[in-house]
Amino acid sequence: MPPSDHYDIIIAGAGQAGAQCAQSLRQGGFAGTIALLGEEPVGPYERPPLSKDYLGGKRDADRLLLRKPEFWAEKGIDLRTGCRITGVDAAARRVTLAGGSHLSYGHLVWATGGRPRPLPCSGADLRGVHAIRTIADIDGLKAEVAPGARAVIIGGGYIGLETAAVLRGMGMAVTVLEAQGRLLARVTSPPVSQFFLKLHQSHGVDVQLCAQVEALTGQGRVTGVRLVDGRELPADIVIVGVGIIPNVEPLAAAGLACPNGVQVDAFCRTSDPHILGIGDCARHPNPFAGSDIRLESVQNAIDQAKVAADTLLGRDRPYAALPWFWSDQYDVKMQSAGLALGQDTIMIRGEVGQAPFSVLYLRDSRLVAIDCINNPKDFMQAKALIAARRRLDTRRALDRETDLRAIALED
Ligand SMILES: Cc1cc2nc3c(=O)[nH]c(=O)nc-3n(C[C@H](O)[C@H](O)[C@H](O)COP(=O)(O)OP(=O)(O)OC[C@H]3O[C@@H](n4cnc5c(N)ncnc54)[C@H](O)[C@@H]3O)c2cc1C
Questions:
Q1: Cα–ligand 1 centroid distance for 280 (angstroms)
Q2: Atom 31, ligand 1: which residue's CA is nearest?
Q3: pTM score of the predicted model
């Protein structure tokens, strides 16, 4: 096999996590060969602006790129775009590329993210039905945005709601259909769900909760959404934001454990000693969850990439980063830290509906998570307190004027 068919490290997936891992390896002094293989036609870019400034036309595609195109070659990283891995032979330490060629590796870092979960109903493949994951997805959607036209967004999670906000700003009539009884049900508490419901309604979005989609209708092109209760909503475009499926099939076929993502340990190692997993596709033991979970956030992609690079450099350091996330909708920035799981108390600092305010999640008086609405000060202070698992003086926590760090107790 000629030398260019072998790399000391192959990184599968040229997204946020893959790009960071390649950079961290070089920063850590790794001198071997690195290939960064991504199936998209462009180099690594940021996804968060896709449903925010890029959709809204406030940012160009060039400004989404994580690095200038020449960066990768300068660092001796062989970036191959338009390069899809279709198979992994773990015993031979070899990947198969679409087209049938092979590359062998010393170590493989799996960083393939996820793909939008398709709607399990008829009409999901009609023209005018859009997902929100890639630059190409947004370009396809933008081409169909027209003031006054009707968009139906299926899924009231962050991506659906951010898209709703931008499309309203572009003059579209927007309906959001959410199957659960509240928005953002998977990720936050009822008060925050209520805040976002009111926010979107005040901007003229028609939010329908407990709305079960039966089918998308139309001949060739979507013209409507039929609900299980028999109602049919007219639609010029439909946007589906109902979560992602981790891209791990080649690893599962190679015999690796992939229960909703590839299973990794605290060092991002899979059950195969030559394969690591990071980012949206990695199911990992999370100390803040107290169990194995997958996280879909930039912070997690970057932190796990750094951990994997350290593992490959022989500097074992377990993943223990505090999860955090943000979302921008209209003039609201929500910042969350920690995981709102297993709390016994929810406290609201300020008034829901009147930003700024924060929602604190406590377990045994310890701060485990926070959602901050236009409240960066609480967010910054809470991050440190959650990471240190500090208890709070809950009698003073409701006073928004008192700093959170001033009410942290010495255990
Ligand atoms: C619209 C949108 C808005 C978001 N907003 C936020 C936000 O505000 N804050 C936040 O923290 N997070 C946000 N996220 C989530 C964040 O972008 C992801 O968590 C992050 O991109 C994950 O990085 P990753 O490298 O694991 O996956 P990705 O960035 O998805 O990269 C994986 C790459 O692997 C490629 N790939 C897949 N399979 C193969 C294969 N077989 N062979 C080769 N290449 C392959 C994919 O094409 C992709 O380019 C948002 C995501 C989206 C889609």
A1: 7
A2: 15
A3: 0.96
